[in-house]
């Protein structure tokens, strides 16, 4: 049943993003930022963690989980190190994913020729 709910929740998040672009006429950049901010707000309110427990990868894979991760890291480090922890916590918890994206993008750029 976990696969079903992961599919439904992930599909709903993706459908919302697609509707934002098709109906709302938002650019992909505006849509991405809106979904990241929505994940951050839901994470800050404590509503995203139950969604991840319920839907698993359906909630942890979409872009909304990046906003959730930023907020979670900032709040955890705020408790440990005070206000300076807000900034360091965001980088600490998301650095592996960002580093992987940069490294894999660089490697792909070495292997493939851009069309232009």
TrEMBL record:
Keywords: Membrane, Transmembrane, Transmembrane helix. It comes from Hydrogenibacillus schlegelii (Bacillus schlegelii). Coiled coil: none annotated. The keyword Transmembrane applies. The chain crosses the membrane at residues 27-47, 54-71, 83-112. The gene is spoVAE. Pfam families: SpoVAC_SpoVAEB. This is Stage V sporulation protein AE. InterPro entries: Spore_V_AE, SpoVA. NCBIfam families: spore_V_AE.
């Amino acid at each position: 049943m976990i696969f079903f709910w992961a599919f439904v929740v992930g599909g709903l998040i993706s459908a919302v993003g697609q509707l934002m672009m098709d109906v709302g006429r938002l650019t992909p950049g505006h849509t991405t930022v809106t979904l990241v901010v929505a994940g951050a707000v839901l994470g800050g309110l404590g509503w995203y963690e139950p969604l991840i427990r319920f839907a698993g990868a359906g909630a942890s894979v979409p872009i909304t989980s990046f906003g959730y991760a930023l907020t979670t890291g900032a709040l955890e480090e705020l408790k440990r190190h005070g206000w300076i922890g807000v900034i360091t916590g965001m980088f600490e918890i998301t650095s592996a994913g960002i580093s992987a994206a940069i490294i894999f993008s660089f490697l792909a750029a070495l292997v493939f020729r851009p069309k232009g």
